[in-house]
Amino acid sequence: MFVSNSKKQFQLVKDGFINLLFPEICLACETELSAREHHICYTCWESIHLTYFEGFKEPSSLDKLFWGRVNLEATYALFYFEKGKASQKLLHALKYQFKGNIGVYLGNFAATKLVNHPVFKEVQALIPVPLHSKKAFIRGYNQSEKIAQGIASVWKIPVIQQEVLKTKHTESQTRKDQFQRWDNVSSIFKVKGDLSNYQHVAIVDDVITTGSTLESMAKELKESNPSLLISIISLALAKSK
């Protein structure tokens, strides 16, 4: 017991010293975080507009986005993406500042909101939207995979990483209109592995704008596995103008 307590005390002192030299700062406003804050301060977190889709009884705007395009069981986004605000800064840190742990943290948070959802609780596996090998090498990790890991840690289900591949290195979607986005991502995914052991999977992404990437991937999954049920989980949904 004495040794165990001594180790804990040493770790606390060590963590405190490291934090003194390298304090953790808010990814949105860059103020120093308190011991109870993680990645983002309370003030910036409160400024992020959550969707609350988990409590909707009627179809959400995200559900409607895919109507007539691909058949999905359920869709979910944790918060709205707003340019120049905390939500954008969080996602920018996740994708471009080597802050993969924020994806795990937010994925974990999203999973707790959906743990009793009548549809999502039936999901048996998670499939993160894959990155092309070139982009994965540059970035160092797949941000969607990090989000999926956070969800999986709560739901205790597997993350499928190798069964779906991105076969073409696409251009950024940021400045493209809806038709250009679809043209950019059509026929870029290939189902390589066997998914016959799963009846219901969820595709995981970081942010949804027009839904073209997810539509393309879901259609490819359906073509290879016609009976497969598919849902979608994303951290963010871009607000319509």
Indicate the mean pLDDT: 87
**Sequence stretches where pLDDT stays below 50 over 5 or more residues:** 179-183
The succession of helices and strands, N to C, reads HHHEHHEHHEHEEHE
Assign a percent range to the helix content: 40-55%
Structure characterization notes:
Helix content is 41%, strand content 15%. The protein is an alpha/beta fold. The chain folds into two domains: 7-47, no CATH class; 48-238, 3-Layer(aba) Sandwich (Rossmann fold). Helix 9 (212-224) links the parallel strand 5 and strand 6. Helix 4 (86-96) crosses helix 5 (100-114). The longest helix has 20 residues, at 2-21.
Concise description?
The chain has helices at residues 2-21, 42-47, 61-65, 86-96, 100-114, 133-139, 143-155, 178-185, 212-224, and strands at residues 75-81, 125-128, 164-166, 189-191, 200-208, 229-238. With 241 residues, the protein is an alpha/beta fold.
List keywords for this structure.
241 residues, alpha/beta, 2 domains, four-stranded parallel sheet, 9 helices, globular
